[in-house]
Design a protein that fits this description.
Blueprint: E1 6-11, H1 15-26, E2 31-37, E3 53-54, H2 57-63, E4 68-71, H3 78-88, E5 91-94, H4 102-115, E6 119-121, H5 129-139, E7 146-154, H6 173-190, E8 193-201, E9 212-219, E10 224-230, H7 239-243, E11 257-261, E12 264-268, E13 272-276, E14 288-292, H8 300-314, H9 322-340
Parallel strand pairs: 1-2, 1-4, 2-3, 4-5, 5-6, 7-10
Antiparallel strand pairs: 7-11, 8-9, 9-10, 11-12, 12-13, 13-14
Helix pairs in contact: 3-4, 4-9, 6-9
The structure holds nicotinamide-adenine-dinucleotide.
Nicotinamide-adenine-dinucleotide (NAD) binds near residues 12, 37, 73, 96 and 124.
Amino acid sequence: MPLLPLRVAVLGAGMIGRRHIGTILQRPDLAELVGVVDPVQPADAFPDVHAPFFPDVQSMFGQCRPEAVVIAAPNNLHRPQALQCCERGVHFLVEKPVTSTWDDAVAMVQAVRRSGVHTLVGHHRRYLAPVQAARKRIADGAIGDIVAASVVWATKKPDAYFDSAWRKSAGGGPLLINAIHEVDMLRHLCGEVVLVKGVKSHARRHFEVEDTAAALLVFESGCVATLVCTDAGLSPWTMEQGSQENDLFGFTHESSYRLIGSRGSLELPVLRQWNARVAGEEAWDRPLVGSYLGGDRWDAYEAQLAHFQRVIRLGDAPMVSVEDGARTLAATLAIAQASDQEAGIRPPGV
Ligand SMILES: NC(=O)c1ccc[n+]([C@@H]2O[C@H](COP(=O)([O-])OP(=O)(O)OC[C@H]3O[C@@H](n4cnc5c(N)ncnc54)[C@H](O)[C@@H]3O)[C@@H](O)[C@H]2O)c1
């Protein structure tokens, strides 16, 4: 039996809110859009949307009865909007980062537990087809135990992107907006993070927040990973460019993840697997073969919405709970905190 579509309101009709609205309109079998909240965006900028627009969350709740909302407003608003949902028993999908501070995340987790609402955090990349295929390969032992990983997220954001002031002040910045996806993906693929070291730089854009950062992550298994993130440098290496998940980004067919295992390696999202040509001969003096794995592709946002419907209608365990989102947040905030400690060694001059 098909499940009933969810009655959903979207809070924030900016860059990602539009994507959620588009997904809902595209998939009436999954959800019906019953309202949009945005204090700035005019309804007539959305000719395909027939649901009412509201300037604030209170008036939306007063006039329409969503059973769920998508929180796609700036990071610092995630906590208050989630708490409003909890007070009213409204389920929510909150965009990443789950909140912009650890204290806010704890408050959100406590409110969710008290209220019993269903929640999901918008780490949509966990639904990407190549990510799910990679998880299966890893679980099947195709590359052995993951020993190390190397990840790059590097692109140059246009100046107009920073017209939204929240993106360049505390609570914004590429660590919390972008690299948090990579931290979440590394947790998803390599396990729990137990130690973080980090550096960040403001040298290109001179904003309050970093424009460039690098991190070393150590996982419970002993695996170590490096992560480089910048929104001020041009490169073909982002998950978006490699996976074609976002039309805004061109498609480069380049992998930005290298997962290195005891028996082989995987490049992601252009799924390419490397193993010894002869099984059992895993050593640097023996030949390797690399093969492209291919496979189906689907829209990660539609898959996320379908999952949200099942979480609410059937009680499925969420792919990313608020607790899980909070752990990803904690590891990401730790990169910035470690950077502030300045514990590095300055090489002597000559
Ligand atoms: N999953 C992803 O890949 C992804 C991508 C981009 C952004 N995000 C996240 O989505 C959120 C929004 O990012 P964005 O890039 O769309 O930002 P944006 O600035 O483009 O849009 C935010 C919108 O929220 C509106 N807004 C401001 N105050 C509001 C309020 N009180 N109630 C409702 N709406 C309000 C703004 O007017 C604006 O239209 C952020 O948390 C961001 O980290 C996630």
